[in-house]
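Q: What would this chain look like folded?
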Amino acid sequence: MPLSMFVSPAAVMVEPLSTKAFTPFGHVIEDPKQASVHDEHNLAVPVQANQGTALKYEHVSSFDDFYKAAPSQCKARAVMNMFSCTPRRLRSVQEHGKGGGGDDPQSESMLGLFDLTLMERHPYTTQTFVPIGLASSDTETGYLVVVAPTLPTVQHAEGFPDVSGVRAFFARGSQAVTYSAATWHAPMIVVGVKPISFIVFQNSNGVAKEDCEEIELITTERTGIVITVLSIS
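A: My prediction, written as structure tokens:
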């Protein structure tokens, strides 16, 4: 059973995923040549590989194992899994109780609203999601990367998410993400019309609580934390 915490109603706008904005939570992995001109990458100068037909960027993301600090002391191993994720249903502005869509100046460019009800983290390992089969030019499907800081705590693995600092990013098929160890994030949220499969890299020792912690976000209001998803195109 996941833990739970009460949250106050809040609205979070989705922003484009970029290295600079995501740095407090992990790494963005993408070809610097395809990144926004406003983004900042700290990649080393690439070297030629594959008989001069490729550029190799080294150390594009961390792959950390902190299980030595876990209470069970069970040794972890690197694992690679695949998650095939179908698009989530988004609520309309009308369902949110704002009245007709024409009354909201953003409604015409809005894809919908997503209710954030669960967050998770992996206390002792990074976790990397690499989308496959989704073109960077796809204007019909993408995915959300929703994260939150951790509230201060004495115990490394017991800090709840600071929901006042929730941020939501929109990622395209040309972008992969690595969550730093112990970073609170939402389960994968695909938006649009097509499923996306992800190859997921992390460490695991098989102890459920040490591999993954979950927390339900509960509200006494009609809505809790609502993420506004603008048009993908």
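The first strand starts at residue 3 and ends at 6.
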